[in-house]
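Limitations

Structures in this collection are predictions, not experimental determinations, and the ligand pose is part of the prediction. Treat each record accordingly. The example that follows, with flavin mononucleotide as the small molecule, is included so readers can see exactly what is and is not provided: the inputs are given verbatim, and the output is the predicted complex.
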Amino acid sequence: MTERFRSCDLDRILGRNTVISTSMTEYPNLFSPLQAGAFSLKHRVIMAPLTRMRSALPGDVPRALNVEYYRQRASEGGLIVSEATQISLQGKGYPGAPGIHTDAQVEGWQAVTEAVHAKGGQILLQLWHVGRNSHSSLHPDDGLPVAPSAIAPRIGKALTADFQQADYETPRALELTELPGIVEQYRAAAIRAQAAGFDGVEIHGANGYLLDQFLEDGTNHRTDAYGGPIENRARLLLQVMDAVIGVWGAERVGVRLSPYGHFGDMQDSDPVALFGYVLQQLSARSVAYAHLVEPRVGNAGADVPIDETAKRTARIFRDAFAGVLISAGGYAAEEAERTIAGGYADAVAFGRLFIANPDLPERFRSGAPLKWPDRASFYGGTEVGYTDYPSLETADR
Ligand SMILES: Cc1cc2nc3c(=O)[nH]c(=O)nc-3n(C[C@H](O)[C@H](O)[C@H](O)COP(=O)(O)O)c2cc1C
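Predicted complex:
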């Protein structure tokens, strides 16, 4: 079990001066209501999407353990964004990550959404195609991962079907004729998400996965209508948005983006122009929210200090987006409060703190101590490091 978390630990881990408050009046903005599209939030402490790789195998089906995990993290009027969920087997990149392309998966997710709703919470499904960040052992007939262009990530490792690290394979560049099929996979997944009882969906356009690979020119070297100028590189994301909006309505669709993010060996020659255009297009579609990942945090939760020199995307892109902006990455309550009060974001999503503090909003509200999660149990495994972090209520028993 993790150690008791103290404010000085957060200072050390996040690399800045953070004071854990003990007053419940400290965060008036964080605890004020917010309307994000059709989502009525009673507070602005959002649970960020977190891959935990604990679905039932084979089949990538959410199971009772996952129901309990989400139930613990639901709160009255709170918003949860689910772990990234593959729209197809081709879009799978990690063993144990859940899917939303079979009836069994829909049934598994139904139990999750019912548990969250029973506590008065709302939950969105994050729709995911990993593109090149995958391994052939995860695919039918050992097919190669697919990507906009045949370029492998130069850093990091793939995970095989049996949870082993392996070098990335050079992906197969998608044919132009295959792209409408990918849009259809997103549409079908959005329909299944409705059947599973979700409140809406978040399109995962961040962190170096397929849609981000199309957006950024480090990974997209195509010369057809989906490569070259920004309008072309944004085409797939916007077609996916339109397909999913057609299913749910724009007020129940959000999108996650990571300008300046390097996870997955990503780079773009002009992030301001690229993401400025994308956010302007998303504004025109009146989506429920845009969710920006700050590049100051390391790869998928590595306990590295915050990079204080990194660009602040919420500040750079705030004016480019007309709707509700959610910011994520390296926040504790104080900075979240300051960020909302300063007008840089409307809400903040918390990742690692939600792993170790299932009742995070209540802890922020009451000034209760926080725990820091054990990275060794982030991905795969049992209830250890997953559903055994106590809430204030269970700790008192
Ligand atoms: C274990 C783990 C799994 C993650 N899985 C996802 C994911 O499925 N989808 C996603 O968009 N981001 C994912 N992220 C990124 C988080 O949503 C979040 O942006 C990141 O942890 C930074 O926020 P934090 O400093 O509050 O933890 C993951 C991060 C961690 C630590």
